[in-house]
Amino acid sequence: MELGYYYHQLGMKEEAEKYLIKLGQRSQGEFEVIISVIQLYVDPKKFDEALVIINGMLKGAPDNPDINHLAGISYYGIKNNDMALLHFKKVTQESRFFQDAVVHVAFIYQDEHKNEKAIQFLNSAMLKAPDNPDFKYYLGTFYEEAEDYEKAVDNIKQAIEIEPNNPRYYFRLGVVYDKWNKKNASIETMQKVIALDPKHANALNYLGYTYADLGRNLDEAERLVKEALKYKPNDGYITDSLGWVYYKKGQFDKALRYLKKAVELIPDDPIMLEHMGDVYQKLNDKPNALKFYQKSLKIKEKDKEALEEKIRQLKSAGS
């Protein structure tokens, strides 16, 4: 590999190809060759060097799915999505990299705002591997993005049927239920995640924040969020959740302390900024409340009506 790359750098392309073509041919019977490319070039993200070697190897084995997968990863790494797609689609289901290649293609389509294409591609992949739970899981996440929550739930549940003890699947299911405004189902599902993985910080936080937002089980909400912070002590979202629990408990000074820290950690989250406005309003600091509401409004993309109403009320109270 190194010698082939060295000749390539010297402009001795034919000499370089002689070595790399042989290497490509060897890779078809020796998986160690593929492992070496991954360890030396792909994992360290030396994508330009990797592509010199991989493209040389492809001349010796153009249909090798494993080399095509490495080409896809490397082109994806240099943000050449067209070439990445070309190579990922050459990875056949017999390859150990088939699942990874399929998921990469779907996410490339998502990055390009072609969610429908991502869904179609995953559906076609599922025909080749109907028992692959991750394909069903990712298909569920794409339906979630399309706000087709019924299909999202259906596909994630199918993934759970195949892998019934996977907390990642249950967590996503809980999130979808929440977006679908099925709060009780979301709560039950998050409880299942925590039963499977008591240290699942995101589920602990999600459940605690949900309780706080609903204004119920506030002591349990505080316990859950504090537990989440043990595992992710400098997480802005979890810190915000704890501040919101204290807000709901009416402990506004304490709430402000945590909400300030959360905004320092993540300064451009519209919900956190709105929380800051809410707590300042409770502390009767109208100028700061207005400032944070307006900051939130600038970056909030949807569901702005309630926030706009808060700003109107503050302004009319001050006039």
How would you describe this protein?
It contains 19 helices and no strands. The protein is mainly α and 319 residues long. Among the domains are: 1-112, Alpha Horseshoe (Serine Threonine Protein Phosphatase 5, Tetratricopeptide repeat), CATH 1.25.40.10; 115-197, Tetratricopeptide repeat domain (Serine Threonine Protein Phosphatase 5, Tetratricopeptide repeat).
Tell me the distance between the termini: 74 Å
Low-confidence parts, pLDDT < 50 over ≥5 residues? none
Q: What is the gyration radius calculated from CA atoms?
A: 25 Å
Number of helices: 19
Structural class: mainly alpha
| Main beta sheet strand tally, sense and closure | none
Mean residue pLDDT: 95
Q: Let me know the CATH homologous superfamily of the domain at 1-112.
A: Tetratricopeptide repeat domain
The name of the CATH architecture of the domain at 1-112 is Alpha Horseshoe
